[in-house]
């Protein structure tokens, strides 16, 4: 199954397969809306806020996403896997100015 991911900052839309993390799906599709760093959850560069949709996640560094932030929908794009279509906003440190 493939889910649609919308990056609000850039209006980019791409598909993300079940079991694929959002950051790798974006890179595979040639999109650049989410900053990319280590792809392992340690750098925090790919921090996003999920505004709509459901996802599962792997463990994230608390240095970059606190427990309260995680409850509010903040996550690292390299650690989350969509379960529905997703709408997100880029928060990461290397966010481009629009």
Give the proportion of residues in helices: 10-25%
Oligomer: single chain
Q: Could you say what the CATH architecture is?
A: Roll
Number of strands: 7
Give the total of domains: 1
Strand content: 25-35%
Q: What structural category characterises the helix and strand content?
A: mainly beta
Q: Give the overall form.
A: globular
CATH superfamily: Beta-grasp domain
Provide mean pLDDT, rounded.
90
Spans of at least 5 consecutive residues with low confidence: none
CATH-assigned fold name: Ubiquitin-like (UB roll)
The CATH class:
Alpha Beta
Largest sheet geometry:
5 strands, mixed
| Radius of gyration, whole Å | 12 Å
Output the strand order for the largest sheet.
2-1-7-3-5
N-to-C terminal Cα separation, in Å? Answer: 32 Å
Describe the protein in words:
The protein has 98 residues and is mainly beta. It has one domain (2-90): Ubiquitin-like (UB roll) (Roll), CATH 3.10.20.30. It contains 2 helices and 7 strands. The chain has helices at residues 22-28, 67-71, and strands at 2-7, 12-17, 47-52, 55-57, 74-76, 80-82, 86-90. The strands form 2 sheets. The chain has a 5-stranded mixed β-sheet with strand order 2-1-7-3-5. It has a two-stranded antiparallel ribbon with strand order 4-6. The longest helix is centred in the first third of the chain and has 7 residues, at 22-28. The chain is globular. The termini are far apart. The model has no long low-confidence stretch (mean pLDDT 90).
């Amino acid at each position: 199954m493939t889910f649609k991911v919308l990056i609000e900052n850039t209006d980019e839309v791409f598909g993300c397969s079940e079991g694929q993390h959002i950051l790798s799906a974006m890179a595979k599709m040639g999109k650049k809306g989410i900053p990319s760093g280590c792809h392992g959850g340690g750098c925090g560069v790919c921090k996003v806020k999920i505004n709509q949709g459901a996802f599962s996640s792997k463990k994230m560094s608390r240095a970059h996403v606190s427990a309260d932030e995680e409850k509010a929908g903040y996550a690292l794009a390299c650690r989350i896997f969509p379960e529905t279509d997703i709408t997100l906003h880029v928060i990461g440190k290397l966010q481009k100015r629009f």
